[in-house]
Amino acid sequence: MCGRYTFYTSEEYREMNRVVRMIEEKYGKGSCPSGDIYPDNRVPILVGQGQKIDVDLLAWGFPRWDGKGLIINARSETAAEKKTFAYPLKSKRCIIPSTGFYEWKKQETGKGKDKYYFTLPGKNSVYMAGLFNAYEDQLRFVILTTGANASMAPIHHRMPLILENHELKDWLFDDQFAAGRVLKASPLLESRFLEA
């Protein structure tokens, strides 16, 4: 599960700043959000344009069929079998650039949840695999999730499908690569407990 992530743009986040510059060239200064990202926010996404990686602003979450709320995640293992995700998986893959994401773990007392922040060791960026589609003339995306690896399992049973830098272009442009990548584990992460 991934219900909130971060997109920090301070000086040390060079890769994110490059995304911001591209977004602002396209949409104008101040058009790119930063900080904590929530469902339904319109945020920077990497998409394939021709044979190049481009940026766009998309809203997070597909509308539910009953009109009540949003679908913000899709299980990578079964996306090809689900009507909502099968077409986007074949032709509308995207990448969600971030600086990390949050997950919560129920406290043993059952009275609250502890908050953790996850990042890739030694890196300032985390790229999550996603799918997008058009809904009423608005482009929207979901984050693909997979089973938790050893670094995530103590906190939650699911995690985002994380792509390494060398996989980004293949995820967007290589259908065969993408079909196999949805079944592979994400890289190991490091976590930090955050005070409530």
TrEMBL record:
Q: Name one GO molecular function term.
A: lyase activity
A GO biological-process term: proteolysis
Keywords recorded for this protein, A-Z: Covalent protein-DNA linkage, DNA damage, DNA-binding, Hydrolase, Lyase, Protease
**One Pfam family from the UniProt entry?**
SRAP
What's the top EC group for this one?
Answer: hydrolase
Question: Is Hydrolase among this UniProt entry's keywords?
Answer: yes
Q: What is its EC number?
A: 3.4.-.-
Keyword DNA damage listed: yes
Annotated family = Belongs to the SOS response-associated peptidase family.
- What is this protein's record name? Abasic site processing protein
Which source organism does the UniProt entry give?
Answer: Hominibacterium faecale
